[in-house]
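Retry 2 of 3 after timeout on previous attempt. Resubmitting structure tokens to design endpoint.
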């Protein structure tokens, strides 16, 4: 059986947190164009499980591959590496504090 440490990990920025226990993380990678050699920026979005609902848009996070949790969710939040600066966390609908 595969150990947890050998699962794929990626780093990205949270771009959306409107769903319950789910965030959308944008991961950017740069690679040279096949023919022309110019470095091209490629972006991909991942749906990530955030059990404690602690990540907010603008946060830099680390995510890890996991078993399928829903139709699109195959990643889970490992840690928040850097909180977004200057962003005031909005109160979620239905949450009582």
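Retry 2 succeeded. Sequence:
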């Amino acid at each position: 059986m595969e150990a947890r440490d050998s699962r794929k990990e990626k780093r990205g920025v949270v771009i959306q947190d409107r769903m319950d226990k789910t965030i959308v993380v944008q991961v950017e990678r740069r690679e040279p164009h096949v023919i022309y050699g110019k470095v091209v920026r490629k972006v991909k979005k991942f749906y990530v499980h955030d059990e404690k609902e602690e990540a907010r848009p603008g946060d830099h996070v680390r995510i890890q591959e996991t078993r399928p949790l829903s139709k699109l969710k195959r990643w889970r939040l490992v840690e928040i590496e850097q909180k977004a600066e200057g962003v005031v966390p909005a109160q979620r609908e239905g949450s009582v504090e």
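Attempt log closed. The two ends are 43 Å apart (CA to CA).
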